[in-house]
Design a protein that fits this description.
There is one protein chain. By secondary structure, the protein is mainly beta. 0% of the residues lie in helices and 35% in strands. The chain has no helices and 30 strands.
Length: 326
């Protein structure tokens, strides 16, 4: 009689071998070498997992955009490979320095509490000019279903995106159906496709997100609903955007669309959005009308503080928030 054993290898603190595409990580996972994959690279298999990139690069090589796994429009190509994935686990951390490059989703963390991405570069093939950009859909950092950690007295630790650089996706950072996420000190730039779905940062039906001191620039291509920062959906509420630079995007700067309510926008700098830039990344003519600050079909009680610095504002923004000369 034959007995077949199926072994699941968990790469933890005691592992002393080369890293490989398709590794399953639990505990402390230390990347020991660069990886060039054609599918998922690292998958988390347990809560309380920390992935240390240790200065290495995880890349995806395929038939997509620029020889990557990102989806392309013409010629069509790409797959749904993910660089680092965690689904259903808590206290998961991805630490840099390191690079995740060329995936359909660079870092995908879903349905967990206290999820952290710190000091990682998430990138793809560079296509700065909209005239030569054939990127379809690609996400840099995607957080979904991450919820607050509750105690008897107050919310506990939040998920955090700290000091990351995210570029060359269609959406740089996408927060979906989540709460208690801190987005602090990130540089999100040159995320653009021809699909009309290009954003530096998106908050979709998400609440109690704090977004502070981020640089969000040169995103979008004036193709459709493009923006630097997009708040979207009726459950997008109680978010606090403070001290961000959301300028020179090809689309609206900060846009609250289709139901966001009770959000606060304080001391942000949003200038020169929707304009042609010397980098040639904006389509001419633009396919929409764009503003530095914009609301469309918004919910109630959004607070657009007059201390935001901006030139143009849409009809839903209170009079006098933006001034042409400031």
């Amino acid at each position: 009689m034959k007995t077949t054993l199926f072994a699941l290898t968990l790469i933890g603190a005691s592992a002393a071998h080369a890293s490989n595409c398709g590794d399953i990580a639990a505990g402390i996972y230390n990347l020991t070498n660069d990886l060039a994959c054609n599918g998922n690279a690292i998958t988390v298999a347990a809560s309380n997992t920390t992935i240390n990139l240790n200065g290495h690069t995880i890349s995806c090589v395929g038939n997509g955009l620029g020889g990557s796994c990102q989806w392309s429009l013409a010629p069509a190509g790409g797959n749904q490979a993910v660089g680092i994935s965690s689904k259903g686990f808590d206290h998961v951390t991805v630490n840099g320095k390191g690079v995740v490059s060329g995936f359909y989703i660079g870092i995908d963390l879903e349905n967990g509490k206290v999820l952290t991405v710190d000091n990682v570069t998430v990138t793809g093939p560079a296509t700065p000019k909209i005239s030569t950009n054939n990127r379809d859909v690609a996400f840099g950092i995607y957080i979904s279903g991450s919820t607050c950690t509750l105690s008897t007295l107050a919310p506990g630790p939040a998920s955090q995106l700290l000091n990351n650089e995210v570029d060359n996706q269609s959406v740089g950072i996408d927060i979906h159906n989540s709460s208690c996420v801190n987005i602090i000190g990130n540089n999100v730039h040159n995320n653009v496709s021809k699909t009309g779905f290009s954003h530096g940062v998106m908050l979709v039906n998400s609440a109690n997100v704090t977004m502070y001191s981020n640089q969000v620039r040169f995103n979008g291509g004036n193709q459709g609903q493009d923006s630097g920062v997009m708040l979207y959906g009726t459950s997008t509420s109680q978010n606090y955007l403070y001290g961000n630079n959301v300028s020179n995007n090809c689309g609206s700067g900060i846009d609250a669309k289709n139901g966001p309510s009770n959000n606060a926008f304080v001391s942000n700098q949003a200038r020169n959005n929707g304009l042609y830039s010397t980098e040639g990344i904006c389509a001419i003519p633009a396919k929409n009308t764009y503003f530095d600050l914009s609301e469309e079909n918004q919910g109630a009680n959004n607070n657009w503080n007059p201390n935001n610095l901006c030139h143009t504002q849409g009809p839903g923004i209170p009079a006098g928030v933006c001034n042409p000369g400031e």
